[in-house]
Amino acid sequence: MAGLRIHSVLVTGANRGIGLGLVQHFLGMPTPPQWVFAACRAPTGQRAQELQRLASKHRNLVIIPLEVTDPASIKAAAAQVGEHLGGSGLTLLINNAGMVILNALDNETMEDMTRVYTTNTIGPLLMGQAFLPLLKEAAQGSPGSALSCSRAAIINMSSSGGSIVEVTLFDMAQVVSYRCSKAALNMLTKCQSLRYKEDGILCVALHPGWVQTDMGNIEDAGPPITVDESVRGMLKVLSSLSEKDTGTFLSWEGNVIPW
Fold first, then answer.
1. pLDDT number for residue 221
2. Residues 26, 32, 36, CA angle at the centre, nearest 5°?
3. What whole-number distance in Å separates Cα of residue 185 and Cα of residue 157?
4. Is the pLDDT of residue 223 over 70?
5. What distance in Å separates the CA atoms of residue 25 and residue 21, rounded to the nearest whole number?
6. 0.90 exceeded by the pTM?
7. Could you give the maximum distance between any two Cα atoms of the chain, in Å?
8. 2 falls in which pLDDT band (50, 70, 90)?
9. What 3 state SS string does the chain have?
């Protein structure tokens, strides 16, 4: 993690679970980012109390109201972040917000497929579009020309459950809408990597592992990885990413996951 030096980072879904863990670790870095933007749907709500507590202690933490399924909310968030950055650009965008509905294939519905796909796939698409100008500013202001998370990057939080080769834990949870949305997110990441490379922006799909979060608990099964372990691993991976990694699908331990 020593090689990860970033000026600014935005994390979606930052009020709990992996998102909150990422915010805590960024704030605890030896050289923390000048700006940590923690985005969530209800910044003043009950579920954001820990974020509020952190913001009262860390002047570099800004809580941003954001609903990733609402284009107007995304546009407003980008404008608010841009005002704080003052032309310095956004170094790192982590599209972490996501949802799962525990349907089996036989009872999957159009409504649930649409809800999950909108959050898990369309949200990151719209976020990349809205924050592209800020990411480009960061890339252009970076002293180096090589792709890295210290220059400008989009990290899409994916899942091995979206791997068509592995289809992880299918016997335990079919969650078809979730799997399809993450497979689509992987393709989005590849497309972003091809389009945004010319702008100096690295793009990677990252699997955080099966983590002990509200979303990770499936039918009373116990996920083996803590939030702290997952986040430490992912930050180590982010610190090592380079041009050869853009457009790839990696695990929290840095291993390539098959599409």
1. 57
2. 60
3. 9
4. no
5. 6
6. yes
7. 53
8. low
9. CCCCCCCEEEEECCCCHHHHHHHHHHHCCCCCCCEEEEEECCCCCHHHHHHHHHHHHCCCEEEEECCCCCHHHHHHHHHHHHHHHCCCCCCEEEECCCCCCCCCHHHCCHHHHHHHHHHHHHHHHHHHHHHHHHHHHHHHHCCCCCCCCCCCEEEEECCHHHCCCCCCCCCCCCCHHHHHHHHHHHHHHHHHHHHHHHHCCEEEEEECCCECCCCCCECCECCCECHHHHHHHHHHHHHHCCHHHCCCEEECCCCECCC
Q: How far apart are CA 33 and CA 13, in angstroms?
A: 19
Residues in the chain: 259
Query: Within a 10 A sphere around the Cβ of 239, how many other Cβ atoms?
Result: 16
Beta carbons of 125 and 185 less than 8 angstroms apart: no
Summarize pLDDT for 132-176 with one digit per residue, the tens.
Answer: 999 999 999 988 889 999 999 999 999 999 999 988 888 888 999
Amino acid at 102: L
Cα–Cα nearest to 172, from 227, 240, 226, 218: 218
Rounded distance between C-alpha atoms, residue 46 and residue 48, angstroms: 6
* Share of residues in the chain with pLDDT > 90 (%): 86
**Which residue, 55, 67, 18, 10, is CA-closest to 211?**
18
Tokens of 146: 């090589």
Find out whether 249 and 256 touch, Cβ atoms under 8 Å: yes
> Which of 85-94, 171-180, 217-226, 236-245 is least confident?
217-226
